[in-house]
User: What shape does this take?
Amino acid sequence: MDARPLRLLLLAGSARKGAWSGHLRDAARPLAEAAGATTEVIDLRALALPVYDADLEAAQGVPDGARRLRDAIGAADGLLLVTPEYNGFPTPLVINAFAWLSRLQAEGGVASGLATTANKPVALLSSSPGPLGGLRAMNFQRQFLQMAFAMLVVPQQFALVRASEAFDESGALKDAKAVQSVTGVLRALLRVAGAMRSA
Ligand SMILES: Cc1cc2nc3c(=O)[nH]c(=O)nc-3n(C[C@H](O)[C@H](O)[C@H](O)COP(=O)(O)O)c2cc1C
Assistant: This one.
């Protein structure tokens, strides 16, 4: 049996300075570590992925940023994706990164983008300053990751409403119930990730 701590990759769907989804990802990080995981964060903007364009792909190939994302997903036992909501939908930053990821074929003994995501556990959180907390986008995100990427999206999820009032000065969630909900999602993710690792 593998005694190594489970490794989680944490992603936020907005790279905006001061993004509430980034705050929620950062608030979830110590909760994941308290639950026994090690964590890694990738800033999707830092992958420098242009808007997907088949002509660009034909001319230049898939950008290396997609390989960085593939490798980080491959090295993780599970993912936590915190999504904001744009017009009830996940953000272009996420959709575009996964579009490029899906174009990576197996190369040099490394699995394709789609083989890397297949059967990988992922849990979803969402956030919004509004009253729905990004819930609509989170449900699309679930469908997208399950249907197109064959990911194991854990049933538990949490939408943080009124995100602009949710954090204290240290960046922690003020509401004990929100902490409990995020912890519940993380525990569910770690259960599935642990089961998949030993499967
Ligand atoms: C194009 C666009 C569409 C938006 N649509 C929604 C929406 O459907 N629901 C919602 O709650 N907030 C919506 N918002 C407001 C975002 O929730 C808000 O800008 C939020 O701060 C973005 O996430 P972030 O803080 O993680 O960057 C929208 C914002 C933008 C820029």
Q: What stands out?
A: The chain is about 45% helix and 15% strand. The mean pLDDT is 97. The pocket of flavin mononucleotide is lined by residues 14, 16, 19-21, 84-88, 128-130, 132, 134 (CB under 6 Å).
